[in-house]
Q: What sequence folds into this?
């Protein structure tokens, strides 16, 4: 700078300070004005997208809002003619390759980072104003996040309450419940199946955010991907879902159950592949409910399938109510004297034999029914000589006092063996 010799340095200093202060004051005033406009939009209910759109127009730059994992939620341009295109992936290298830069601030609710807010444009277009604006806008976006979270929690509670009313039949008029479900986005006029998944009792409580604590969310996401209009409620230890079924009249009930079982197994396999460190959980589903009134029955069946199935066949498996067979009846009689009396009366003579022969005779009897009385098949699968099997079967008939050809005896013995299995699993 070429200044006259008579120029006072003190005067120049005052002028420069005045210019800097006034410039900064103008920038701060403009930033405050934009922030005030955005706050008014927020109060009027414009939402996150509305706030981002106004910010993009005010700054004439791209506005990008990302979640905590830096996945893009909103990407808004200034709609100007010279707005540069953004790369598909917003890395610093990709931005620099297109002559772009960005400034980013975290969006926080208390001490939790709920997202990231960025302004993106050409490097020469950035100055102090943008950084100042972002600092004032971030709390407004955080407020919108808090409102969205609260609204989501309220809607989730209402949805869960409505789902439990459907499952338990807590409504006066079916039409009103159908309308209520429709408002939430669910069509219960089509056939439905209830499925329940629960963590095993031995699984501890996992810290929020840990991979194992995410099992219910991952399962919920996969169920919604397979059945897009399903109604799913997920908790820390349990997931309940109403799965809509597009019924094919050409299929029998057995074929429909088999198809559903296969789809659920594939869904569970995808959940496991997405995260190999999931906790152990079991699942159970009921039979097809053709209408709203039949859904509570399918819910009870799903609960029974889950309870009986994991006790009889173990945890970490999927259980179908339709496949439980006679165990559905026997489970209700568990603890009744009639059940234990029938078991002892039917198999008593075999149970009273010495322990080694008792075990051998019971094993032989189970093989007899498993092979439908075919001695050749029994000898092959049980790895015994035919004469040994004949001797054991003769001994069984001798102890029971009746031939195994007696159909009534066969039925009683098969039921008694099922009871034995039930009692051994519950003891």
A:
């Amino acid at each position: 700078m070429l200044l006259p010799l008579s120029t006072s340095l003190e005067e120049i200093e005052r002028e420069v300070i005045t210019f800097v202060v006034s410039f900064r004051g103008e920038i701060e005033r403009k930033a405050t004005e934009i922030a005030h406009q955005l706050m008014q939009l927020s109060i009027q209910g414009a939402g996150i997208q509305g706030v981002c759109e106004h910010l993009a127009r005010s700054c004439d730059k791209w506005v990008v809002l990302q979640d905590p994992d830096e996945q893009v939620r909103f990407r808004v341009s200034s709609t100007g003619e010279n707005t540069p295109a953004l790369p598909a992936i917003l890395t610093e290298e990709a931005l620099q390759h297109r002559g772009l830069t960005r400034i980013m601030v975290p969006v926080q609710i208390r001490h939790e980072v709920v997202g990231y807010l960025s302004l993106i444009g050409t490097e020469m277009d950035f100055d102090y104003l943008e950084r100042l604006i972002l600092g004032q806008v971030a709390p407004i976006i955080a407020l919108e996040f808090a409102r969205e979270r609260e609204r989501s929690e309220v809607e989730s509670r209402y949805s869960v309450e409505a789902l439990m009313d459907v499952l338990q039949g807590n409504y006066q008029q079916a039409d009103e419940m159908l309308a209520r479900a429709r408002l939430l986005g669910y069509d219960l006029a089509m056939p439905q199946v209830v499925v329940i998944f629960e963590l095993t009792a031995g699984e501890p409580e996992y810290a929020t955010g840990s991979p194992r604590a995410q099992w219910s969310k991952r399962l919920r996401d996969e169920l919604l991907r397979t059945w897009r209009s399903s109604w799913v409620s997920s908790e820390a230890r349990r997931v309940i879902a109403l799965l809509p079924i597009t019924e094919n009249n050409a299929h029998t009930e057995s074929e429909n159950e088999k198809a559903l079982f296969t789809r659920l197994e594939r869904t569970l396999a995808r959940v496991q592949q997405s995260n190999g460190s999931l906790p152990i959980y079991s699942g159970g589903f009921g039979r097809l409910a053709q209408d709203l009134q039949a859904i509570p029955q399918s819910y009870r069946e799903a609960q029974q399938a889950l309870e009986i199935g994991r006790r009889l066949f173990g945890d970490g498996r999927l259980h179908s109510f339709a496949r439980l067979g006679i165990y559905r009846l026997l489970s209700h009689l568990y603890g009744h004297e009639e059940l234990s009396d029938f078991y002892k009366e039917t198999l008593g003579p075999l149970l009273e034999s010495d322990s080694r022969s008792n075990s051998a005779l019971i094993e032989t009897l189970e093989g007899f029914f498993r092979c439908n009385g075919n001695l050749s098949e029994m000898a092959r699968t049980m790895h015994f000589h035919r004469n040994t099997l004949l001797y054991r079967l003769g001994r069984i008939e001798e102890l029971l006092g009746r031939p195994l050809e007696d159909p009534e005896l066969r039925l009683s013995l098969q039921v008694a063996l099922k009871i034995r299995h039930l009692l051994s699993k519950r003891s």
Summary: The mean pLDDT is 85. The CA atoms of residues 282 and 315 lie 6 Å apart. Strands lie at 62-66, 72-76, 100-109, 112-122, 192-199, 231-234, 238-244, 281-285, 318-320.
